[in-house]
Amino acid sequence: MLSILAPKPANSGYCDGISRRNFLRIGALGLGGLALPQLLRAEAEQGIRKSHKAVIMIFLPGGPAHQDLWDLKPDAPADIRGEFKPIKTNVGGIEISELMPRLAKRMDKCAIIRSMVGADGAHDAFQCMTGRKSRRQQPPGGWPSLGSCVSKVLGPQDKAIPAFCGLAPPMGHMEWADTGQAGFLGIPHAPFKPSGDGKEDMVLNGVTLDRLGDRRALLTSLDRFRSEMDSFGQMEGVDAFNQQAIGMLTSSKLSTALDLANEDPKIIEMYGKGDPKNRDDGGPKLMEHFLIARRLVEAGARVVTLAFSRWDHHGKNAEALRQDTPMLDQGVSALIDDLYARGLDKDVSVVVWGEFGRTPKINDKGGRDHWPKVSGALLFGGGMKVGQVIGSTTRDAGEADSRPVQFGEVFATLYHNLGIDVNKATVPDLSGRPMYLVEDGCQPMKELVG
């Protein structure tokens, strides 16, 4: 508690001689001039409900063949329908690929979007991470990803756990390994990437907590001095970064969440074992990332992104899907079961998608090429309305036939599930101008959230 060395006021009601009025005034100064009612009012104006809710985004690099996973066309000609047959799910009238029998048994806990539109055709994670239509004509610094926006708007739920974590491993085509960029929000809101040698930086390496406290005090003094010279407000961001780093170093929560030695072996077995090797230009199949994502959100992370396998099948599409889809089926199904078993199904929203779909017609190499006109997505958790299919495509799965869904609508839904009102909440760009989190017209999907 802050003590002020001053004469004790008469009739003071507090043991340190500070009146209630002065106490509130001191508290306001400590919060940038905002008293508690003002802070609460500011949150309300931004459309923010404080919560422990989270999002897991599973990116499928390269763009999976939607007509071989979620939107099969058994009555189409052979060179369109492909080799796979639809199977019934536990929801009447919904069928998915025979390659996903586990998900078929859990369709009552999932929602499928068969009519994702608006992909710009770029072979990267940009739209899936930002919800923006194009990387062209971005504001200075670039558009921030969902995780970075959530980090800025809500901040960390726990100082020891980064608000935004990215699990994508390095790939030959690094645009697929993009876990989400901070854009104009800057480094303090970039994803924490706990991969490779970075794990070594999460220990104090012989520095005691007392010495760390001395260094922290010195940094604070230096930062305060530099902030007085800073006309662009950049030191505020640096200080936030330092606070996050110190919080991580002084707690074992993060390292514990990342260490699967702390997990029940039966749970690890449920998620399965993958393949860490890159194939061609990318695509490690790290089954443990599904589990680590759950452990991170349970520990306090607000957004976790991961990239799984490689779905750019210009040749031998069916052969590749036979190898990869059963693993995706197992990993996602295990995540569903795990979230429900831990009571997280209302708090954690999950989306599974790629940057675009694949061509209706199979090419002469047995593959499907890039197809930005339409694609699919799978969602579950977050208290969303599940056990349904949203939208439909034409007979050849080439275009949306009903209820086209924009990337930004899915983002608006995810923000809504986190307690953020996209019609009110903004983040400041490099010039300080408030920017909305989604593009004009994008609202939470009524089919999913009512």
UniProtKB/TrEMBL annotation:
Matches recorded under PROSITE patterns: TAT
Signal peptide range in chain numbering: none
Top-level division of the source organism's lineage: Bacteria
SUPFAM superfamilies linked: Alkaline phosphatase-like
InterPro entries: Alkaline_phosphatase_core_sf, DUF1501, TAT_signal
Cited PANTHER family: BLL7424 PROTEIN (PTHR43737), DUF1501 DOMAIN-CONTAINING PROTEIN (PTHR43737:SF1)
Protein's name in the database: DUF1501 domain-containing protein
Organism of origin: Humisphaera borealis
Taxonomy of the source species: Bacteria, Pseudomonadati, Planctomycetota, Phycisphaerae, Tepidisphaerales
